[in-house]
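okkk here we go again. third time trying to get the flavin-adenine dinucleotide bound version out, last two times i messed up the smiles copy paste (missing a bracket lol). double checked this time i swear
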Amino acid sequence: MTIIEPVESQTKYTGTRVRRTEDPRLLAGRGQYIDDVTVPKMIEAAVLRSPLAHARITNIDVSRARAHPGVFDVLTGQDLATVAGQQPVIWFPIPEQRIAKTHALAVDQVRWVGQAVAAVVAVDRYVAEDALELIDIDYEPLPVVADLDAALAPDAPKLYDDWPDNVSGSLTYTAGDPDAAFASADLVVSASFRHGRAFGCPLEPRGCIVNWDTFAGSLDVWLSTQSPNLARDLLAEVFGIPVHKIRVRTPNLGGGFGNKFDFYGEEVIAAVLSRRTGRPVKLIEDRAESFVATSHSRDQRLDFEMALRSDGTILGLRGVSYGVLGGAFGTVGSGPPWASVLTCMGPYKIPNMDVTVKAVMTNRSPYGSYRGWGVPKGNIVHERLIELAARKLGMDRTEIRRKNFPAPEEFPFFTGVAFTYDSGRYADCLDLATSKIDELGWRERQARARAEGRSVGIGYSFHVEPSAYGPSRILNLVGLAHSGFDEVTVRMDSIGKVTIYSGQINMGQGTHTIYAQLAADTLGIPMDDVVVITGDTDSCPYTGYGTGGSRAAPLGGAAILRAGERLRAKILRIAAELLEASPEDLQIQDGQISVKGTTGRSVSTRDVGDAAYRRLLNRLPEGETPTLEEVDVFDPPNMATSYGCTALLVEVDRETGTVSLLDCLQAHDCGTVINPMLVDGQLAGGLAQALGGALLEELVYDEEGQLKTASFMDYLLPTAMEIPPFHFYHQETPAPDIPGGIKGVGEAGPIAGVSLVGSAIDDALSDLGVAVTRFPCTPPRLLELIREAQSRKEGSA
Amino acid sequence: MKPPPVKYARAGDVQEAIALLTEHGSDAKVLAGGQSLIPLMNFRLARPSILIDINRVRELDYVREDNGTLAIGAMTRQRDVETSSVAAASVPLLPEVLRHVGHITNRNRGTVGGSLAHADPAAELPALVTGLGGELVVQGPNGVRTIPAEDFFMSTFTTALEPDEVLIGVRLPRLPGGTGVAVEELARRHGDFAIVAAMAAVHLAPDRSVDLVRLAVSGVDSVPVRLHAAEDALTGGRPSAEAIEAAAATVADAIHPADDVHAPASYRRDMAQLLVKRVAKAALERSETKS
Ligand SMILES: Cc1cc2nc3c(=O)[nH]c(=O)nc-3n(C[C@H](O)[C@H](O)[C@H](O)COP(=O)(O)OP(=O)(O)OC[C@H]3O[C@@H](n4cnc5c(N)ncnc54)[C@H](O)[C@@H]3O)c2cc1C
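finally!!
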């Protein structure tokens, strides 16, 4: 007879491709997005936006709009400023920086096309838009600062009269002795990189419904946001209303991508209109408005140089990251261009650095959060420069990378500028990617194509993604006026079912699914027994920051694991009383608690719930508090840095400058993979956005500061037709500082994908020596590069 | 993105549509598939006071061939033409071109007449009709008239249609059997309006000399352009790389491209020339010598 040891299956859901619990409702079209929410007596608002990039408002006449049938109220900046403060800014990374603040409605001056200048609230949105046409505004045009060069020109017109120029501030980080490193280098490569303006463009634009109850002095807010707690704190700041009188609820989000992290003027406008009319006010940003009114991002120039030894060892890096900000600060100020500087060394050991961020104001829409948050441009710096160096040194592009990685035993690894990466097996990840390139036969495909005279190239990008933002005190230290911890409540009820309450927001990542997976595994219960509640500040706990910085899985996940551990212990103590056993001898499986290694009596979580809530007598151990609830607050001791190696196969048409994406793979390490399907989804979606940014998407302004790409006809999101097949491979190196070993994964794709395209195009055109430095790389731009290179080659031949 | 107030009337037949147009004059707009008109209204760029819906005018929904002419009703959905065996047999360029017009969902609603009446200079169908020497059939209070394509398209979004006229159909000459056709489109994404689109139809005589060439481009002028000089350069001789080069060399003078956010004029000019070469070559390769 064989004795079979009872198998203890600790992890049942974690690591498996569990289907998303969120999906059936959304796929059936029964999701509830902000515009699906109606509140009794609600009326609808619309915003009038500036047609000019820079002008003084000399007169506003709202009388005709006010008289229009169906109109309840018309609001101007002057009116708003009497009850609302300026729009808050939470990131101040640059010491002594000048902060350009503005009210939700322009008071006397407009500084970008699309800046809100007045608002109407009416019986419905149609009438509100009709009335907008009846508002008469006189503008006195001012000289326009249309782009970075115009802003920095010595005699540039100024956006803010009391500033000496258009520079908000700058900050330099140094490490080692950069001058000596550059002086002694065998090779210096340099380039001026440019990334055009882009934005996250969630398919559901922003929106809110605000009810200002003047009797209670309270605000009841429905908001399509990634950060309800932040919105609540900031509404309190703007209006001077106590935080506990503000409730923010969040329905389904049709995408956020960082854009819905930020706090916008429309929330404030709707609140003021509600206060003035005594009615709940809905204010939806429509698609057309979204191009000027949702945070823009990415707009940066990065002038950088890298010093190397002839063997490929990087000695130094120096340069300036210019953040091309808009006419006023968004919620996160100059945070993203600053983050580019923090990550411009990427996964490489660079002992000597001199790197600067310079934040510059222009007459464009405000700059804000977008998935990747500056790191994609840090990636452009290190990945493009290391490839230029490899080319000059005649080195293999993967070898030069490998040579400069910190070894696994060198972690925690201090980059020299702010971040300490927690852990990494970079070379293994690179090997994984290159082995898959071989397996997929890309090199043969490339060789065959080349033999046919076609230009096929393979691109690489090795990226780091600092995730799990972040240790609260460190965030405060580097200039964030907010925290980074996450709080969860794990509650088992009187029949043994579990509810998780979290301050995180689910905007498509599948947070509810992974939270249920983690809770089910720590508690030993079926996933079906777990419900996850998010999106209501009245019932859900506080999260520092919001859902951004790839923090929902590592921080919320860790908090669930820690709360779950304690709750599990309590469940076992109560079960021990019921089973007359010792808690240490018990196990929970599938919601049944029994003595390990026996097939004897068991009790269920239902029995435990009953003992904790209803029939306590002789069942709840003496001294044990009734109820089954644990709260955990997890403030991480360090961030968790995930990383990956991405590769792309492209074909370039040398006669037209068009690029076709043929195949794409990513080898990735985000520590413990909770759900491979969801991680793949994050990687794929993020890469698609990056490929859009690399080739298609650009918010183009003309010299008058007019936005030329203000609809989906001209702002070109990639579609399924443009996106290559994706292959993903996971390497799991648990995060040392995060319980559960989880690292974030939300921003991997956007970070990796832009430089990746440059690398692949360069490779396809390697005989010409083309170096892509400007994104998006549009057909006319690429054709110009090709022709320049061709004439250079002919000239030298 | 809410349109201004607008009245709505549904026409049961062409006569009724014309009567409504006559009554309301230039304040009225015909509503066909709505794929261009409705977005323009949502942006408040088009502000008709009344929409005259001709979607129920069944008499304008047909694809048929008679006497060597392919006739298509104005209200025929683009997708129906794309999948029509009659159209494919008569003018094989049609389905190839239509595949470049937006996405299937747009073509399910968008009509042939709507695309032609809208007259977007980058649109493919106007270029096809112009290139093949088609005719537009319009009807107004004074009856029916026929307008050659090159006279119909006058400028960006501007045609020879009078405000009280309805475009009722288009007529295209049948391409002889064995005609090779090709389309090349340079667009930023699949389904976008063309930066440049070029299309060609080429027929070879039994002696393998070129006896019919039709070449057209869109996106490079305020109207679609038929490339007469390029056609002449190819016609009569044997197909050769030199002949194609010579034909392409005439393109720059035939077009007047403008700068826009997607491409400068110089790029459009160069690409028009390149795509003409490509389509001429491909059409020649696909043409079969039979009568
Ligand atoms: C996402 C998207 C992508 C697109 N891509 C392309 C593309 O790549 N290429 C392209 O060519 N088009 C493209 N379009 C436009 C599309 O092809 C439209 O179908 C076409 O331009 C108009 O046809 P419609 O039937 O929808 O006309 P409507 O929008 O109903 O009308 C357009 C105009 O024509 C007038 N009109 C319509 N029918 C008649 C008639 N019988 N008599 C008189 N006047 C009439 C209307 O009054 C209106 O002014 C795209 C559209 C969308 C939404």
